[in-house]
Amino acid sequence: IQAADWWRGAVIYQVYPRSFQDTNSDGLGDLKGITRRLPHIANLGVDAIWLSPFFKSPMADMGYDVSDYCDVDPIFGTLDDFDEMMGVAHSLGLKVIIDQVISHTSDQHPWFVESRSSRTNPKADWYVWADPKRDGTAPNNWLSIFGGPGWEWDGVRRQYYQHNFLTSQPDLNFHNREVQDAVLKTVKFWLDRGVDGFRLDTVNYYFCDKLLRDNPPHEPDTSDGGLDAPDSNPYGMQNHLHDKTQPENLDFLKRLRALLNQYEGRATVGEVGDGARSLKTVAAYTSGGDKLHMCYTFDLLGPDFTAAHIRNCVETFQKTVVDGWVCWAFSNHDVKRHVSRFAKAQEERSIIAKLAISVLAALRGSICLYQGEELGLAEAELAFEDLRDPYGIRFWPAFKGRDGCRTPMPWEAGKAHAGFTSAEKSWLPVPYEQAALSVDTQEEDVNSVFTHYRQMLEFRKRHPALLDGDMEFIGTNQDLLAFTREKNGEKLLFVFNLTRKPAEFRLPVGMTLGEHVDMPGSGGLAGRESIQLEALSALCSRI
Ligand code: TEU
Ligand code: CA
């Protein structure tokens, strides 16, 4: 893999700045805090960090509502703090990816303030404005992901504007080329500053249907891992035919790529939430080498941690995405932590955490890790009074929102708020039981989840076959996830037993096991014709 292609197979560690490390005792994480804790991330052995938004924002959606794309919000620090953080990251060998939330802005963004001021101002067409129907109701049936209609009435323009999320997150009108130019200018601002890449928020939402046609009636969508299910979040409550994923986006993505290509070694990872069509969308966005570098979907962010599901996702990908590239993840700041999704009992948590990273590290693709998963953190149980996420506040208790995965990092077990802040109150509590899983207790422990993560990522680095080598599933035992990875003559067999009972893997005719490979946690009893695996265990062997 060439240096400029560092992103291919990279391990990307997502930092949620608000919850990483506070340095000025206001109970909120900040950029200086990230700088201070970068050695922890480097020690883990990842290639890049992805920072969730730290831009100027009223914080209605915790920074995913930007009011100035080219400045840092004072709660996080200053542009100088950012430069310093990036400098230290680079000196530690870490690439820096920032989050671009350009599908919508905050309603406090000067562009929207101007746009809503009249129907004739220079930015009048920068957002998706439309007249009401004759009876005064919204222009069409589009819905907001965060609940309710996707349109909000504006009394000054006497028109509706469209929003996919909060009413304070109006959608930009990408059909207007001036909007594209303005957005690309902000991207250039950060490229010139030296960032290595961008995570593109809701990248398939940039364009809506120009004719504003109604979406077809809703059919329950289980394709994204059953996120419709109760106790999970109510994402995917509509058929996204006309409000998302329009063909015009391909041309915009080409413009974006052309800009990136003027710089060396920059990369994009798009977030694609497109229900059943997600994989097709990823194929369209990442093939051809002239649009995005990679995308992630919600396929592995649901409750299903079975061999059949993972195999199905990867195989569907392999069939659909011919020359594109994918980024796999089990967790991020929008979903319940995977230890809580996958473990059936508290005693299982650390073994599940270890098994999950072993699976992830063996897959073809890039990987996104979410802060705290390297500690095996479970979802925090919060009281309604603790909630800060407007999405959770709205749907409580059917959906408890996204605060449970956004609680602060526990650094030092012995300190108040586990060392996250020296303020009296932290913006979200650090759960009591998470302090026991703090970084300082796990770093020294050879059996900890953290140590396993470190060893597993090291293992992945030592075996290039794991990054972009061929991947082929084998066997018919539905309980086992079995595949080979191959590159430059090295051929490895992986077998994962994700069930709670022992299982037998029968070697395909003609396959013989070679010498032992040093995969951390690899176990099992290998015979000439079959391998016996304990419940929730893994084996790796040369073949
Ligand atoms: O999330 C986008 C999002 O919630 C949808 O893509 C949804 O998950 C999908 O339709 C499921 O199929 C991003 C951010 O990650 C999130 O934190 C923000 O709240 C949101 O955008 C709005 O900016
Ligand atoms: Ca702070």
Describe this structure in words.
This protein has helices spanning 31-44, 79-91, 110-115, 177-193, 248-260, 278-286, 307-320, 338-342, 349-362, 390-395, 432-435, 439-443, 449-462, 465-468, and strands spanning 11-15, 48-51, 55-56, 68-72, 95-100, 129-130, 151-154, 159-162, 197-200, 267-271, 294-296, 327-329, 366-370, 470-473, 480-487, 490-497, 503-506, 525-526, 530-533, 537-542. It has 543 residues and is α/β, with parallel strands linked by helices. It has a domain at 468-542: Sandwich (Immunoglobulin-like). Strand 9, helix 5 and strand 10 form a beta-alpha-beta unit. Helix 1 (31-44) packs parallel to helix 2 (79-91) and helix 9 runs parallel beside helix 13 (449-462). It is globular, with a radius of gyration of 23 Å. The relative contact order is 0.10. The structure holds 1-O-alpha-D-glucopyranosyl-D-fructose and calcium ion.
Keyphrases for this structure?
single chain; 543 residues; alpha/beta; Immunoglobulin-like; eight-stranded parallel β-sheet; four-stranded antiparallel β-sheet; 14 helices; 20 strands; globular; binds 1-O-alpha-D-glucopyranosyl-D-fructose; binds calcium ion; Alpha amylase protein; GH; glycosidase
